[in-house]
Amino acid sequence: MRYSFIAELAAPGREVPVRACDPESNPVWLFASIGEYPVYDDVVYEAMIKDERRMNRYVEAVRRYAPGRTVLDIGTGKDAVWALAAARAGARHVWAVEVIPKSAQIARETIEEAGFADRITVIEGLSTEIELPEPVDVCVSEIIGTLGGSEGAGSVLRDARKRLVKPGGVFIPHRSVTTAVALDLGSANGGRPLGFPPFVFRYVEEVFASVGRPFDLRVVLEGLQDSPAVRDRSYLSDPVEVEPLEFNGDLDPEGIDAAELMFTREGNFSGLALAMRLWVAEGDEPIDSLVQPSSWTPVYAPLSVEGLPVRPGDRFEFDFTTTLSDDGVHPDYALTGELHRAGGPVVPLSWSSTHHGDGFRATPFYRSLFPGPGGP
Ligand SMILES: C[S@@+](CC[C@H](N)C(=O)[O-])C[C@H]1O[C@@H](n2cnc3c(N)ncnc32)[C@H](O)[C@@H]1O
């Protein structure tokens, strides 16, 4: 067992112990779910640009809808990729909005260098706080989270629909859902507990700093998407869909979805992988972050540290609740369910993950990840 320390808001003597792991010897390891915080850096933007499936789907959709139209790009990022794709495809004018000042500044320079400064206007700020001279024909954004709605796509795009986009205007992406699959994580890592590789610590620190204190941050599982062998050992059920977000239809960022996972394999049920499917344009095949390597990674919802033995035919029934946090944009998630096993008593299981709630080391999983001075 290895522990290291991460600084708590750079205050000497207030370091937080954290479980470290070596990705070389652990096929599955943890990263922080960072897209819902303003902690984007060059490495993160580059990972998105290198995601060919994501890039191709978006550029195809932009080429389909942008020619001759006015376009709003929400969250253009430092590379202004969709704004530039729209201008190159012949958009009449593009408004590119970005909340991170440094990213907005670099986007402005990139657009000038590409010779599109007359057709793309960069606006620094939150899309929910800006005004446009006139509503646009098309809104493009990629603020889809590790869970479909976790970066605030539901409330941000509902606001854009009300104030910034013409009635009947087109939204890219078209829709997203969150997916859930039952996991046996012990078998993937030979029983070793999960941890963060040291190069992830600075992202954990930045998420803590953006919230103002340590808390039980959402974590994602690296290593599942890339290896069919690891997935086959880890996934115990077929996936189900929750949190549907219809960007071109009735868009409700909050709700309760009832779902049931049927176990298809024998194993030790430790929790769920929660991921997303994204239909960039109507009629597209979805991008599926449970099974395709991508810049989105499945969130881990731990339900049992020791794991619960399950067999084919057993089932996990649950309610998945999405509620907007008090910032009005980013959802808090909660899941309550019952494990039904042949011949055994019903086992109640639950998980919750707030955007910036104040619980720290509140469950056995987080006490193992961030052990106190005396150990977990
Ligand atoms: C996942 S990145 C996407 C960047 C780029 N569009 C791309 O797809 O490569 C999301 C970006 O949106 C920005 N963002 C998120 N919500 C926003 C909002 N409501 N208004 C403006 N910018 C936002 C973030 O700061 C971040 O730069």
Automatic annotation (TrEMBL):
Protein name according to UniProt: SAM-dependent methyltransferase
CDD domains from the UniProt entry: AdoMet_MTases
Classification via InterPro entries: Arg_MeTrfase, SAM-dependent_MTases_sf
Entry superkingdom: Bacteria
PANTHER family per the UniProt record, alphabetical: PROTEIN ARGININE N-METHYLTRANSFERASE, PROTEIN ARGININE N-METHYLTRANSFERASE 3
